[in-house]
Amino acid sequence: MMGPAHSLSGAAAWLGVGAAAAAAGHTMPWPVLVVGALICAGAALAPDLDHKSATISRAFGPISKGVCEIVDKLSYAVYKATKGAGDPRRTGGHRTLTHTWLWAVLMGGGASLAAITGGRWAVLAILFVHLVLAVEGLLWRAARMSSDVLVWMLGATSAWILAGVLDKPGHGSDWLFAEPGQEYLWLGLPIVLGSLVHCVGDALTVSGCPILWPIPLGRKRWYPLGPPKFMRFRAGSWVEIKVLMPAFMVLGGVGAAAALNFI
């Protein structure tokens, strides 16, 4: 999938979680619903850190381009070191390490650990990075027409405001984890979800996605999971743009309404 579809699917997924929580009688505070959806939308771009031409590579200028090159080389090295007898030869690391459940869990766990040990500045950094990515994915036309500095300023301002809202009593900094010192421990959850949703989206395309690595399937350790080939589509095709993206918008709207007990 392309960046906008990934971000939309991430936001819709978190709003769906909010709807499920409301149905179970544990309605999310509205700031958690909003912030979680934005983080999930941003995190849904992050697995493409192994792709030098992806949306995320442009998000933070030379810094993100450099990180993408490093992650690409790291992913390729891990692939070569762990591939099974049935895995094909590759020339790059795209859709390998960062497109697995293990990577998603590590990224989410790392973010949660940083949030509870690094204090407010760590929380602000997590919010800033994912809000910038959310803008790049959800508002991609506007982001490409404006300067990077404006997008970064929007991300920084939004992160500061939303962190202030979450810090207010009952607004969600201690959602799910109420013990002292566990505030913002939940921030890793939308990051894990966004990464997994990205992998599921890529699994629907012709190349599939090795979500289960390092669990071997037959002679392959990097087995590209996906539906039957006749059900797959090419990234950026009409199926993604005309069918899936509108569907994500509708599902996200329904999820938000249900999460806020409007329906």
The secondary structure category is mainly alpha
Count of DSSP-assigned helices: 10
Instruction: Give the total of beta strands.
Output: 0
Termini distance?
31 Å
* Biggest sheet overview: none
Helix-strand blueprint:
Elements (H helix, E strand, L loop, with lengths): L2 H21 L6 H14 L11 H5 L2 H21 L18 H17 L1 H20 L1 H6 L2 H20 L20 H16 L34 H22 L4
Q: In short, what is this structure?
A:
With 263 residues, this protein is mainly alpha-helical. The protein is built from 10 helices and no strands. α1 runs antiparallel to α2, α2 crosses α6 and α2 packs across α9.
Describe the overall structure:
- By secondary structure, this protein is mostly helical.
- Helices cover 62% and strands 0% of the residues.
- The chain has helices at residues 3-23, 30-43, 55-59, 62-82, 101-117, 119-138, 140-145, 148-167, 188-203, 238-259.
- The longest helix has 22 residues, at 238-259.
- The chain starts with a helix and ends with a helix.
Entry keywords:
mainly alpha, globular
